[in-house]
């Protein structure tokens, strides 16, 4: 982490380079400061480079740029080349695209809200493709989905059927998921 401040003209430059920082530590620190989050990461690590520069008197309104963000762990891997926070307080994130590899959908969905058990779904499977982030209440996943498992029951007998691979186009809008599978 590097911070330079030129007091004579009130300007600052802040740069950060993180490698494999446990996400659980970040969120426990946020909770210590009274900032709640629906995300409860367990085995996840964050790597990124970040930079902000501007005037110290207006630091909350300055932008912050993140490059080479990589989130990896038991939930899969998400990476993006660039995210632009156009405002630090209140936090405003411009839309951006991420690449996902082998992303566990049950863990992704539980980041946003607890999952209620389903009698007709077993494993939600894994996703590889792109994630388009519009804002904290809206995102889109499009790519390939593997391992979705349905549970059928009749006369007390349960049968599991797993779909090996299909294309997925899913949207999250205001805490509600809709999806097209083919």
Q: Over the alpha carbons, how many angstroms does the gyration radius reach?
A: 20 Å
- The chain-level mean pLDDT equals 83
**Which structural class should the secondary elements be placed in?**
mainly beta
SSE run: EEHEEEEEHEEEE
Distance between the termini: 46 Å
Key features?
182 residues; mainly beta; 11-stranded antiparallel sheet; 2 helices; 11 strands; 10% helix; elongated
SSE map:
Elements: E1 2-6, E2 11-22, H1 23-32, E3 44-55, E4 64-73, E5 76-87, E6 92-93, E7 96-104, H2 105-112, E8 126-135, E9 138-154, E10 157-173, E11 176-181
Antiparallel strand pairs: 1-2, 2-3, 3-4, 4-5, 5-6, 5-7, 7-8, 8-9, 9-10, 10-11
Describe this structure in words.
This protein has helices spanning 23-32, 105-112, and strands at 2-6, 11-22, 44-55, 64-73, 76-87, 92-93, 96-104, 126-135, 138-154, 157-173, 176-181. The longest helix is centred in the N-terminal third of the chain and has 10 residues, at 23-32. By secondary structure, the protein is mainly beta.
In short:
By secondary structure, the protein is mostly beta strands. The chain has helices at residues 23-32, 105-112, and strands spanning 2-6, 11-22, 44-55, 64-73, 76-87, 92-93, 96-104, 126-135, 138-154, 157-173, 176-181.
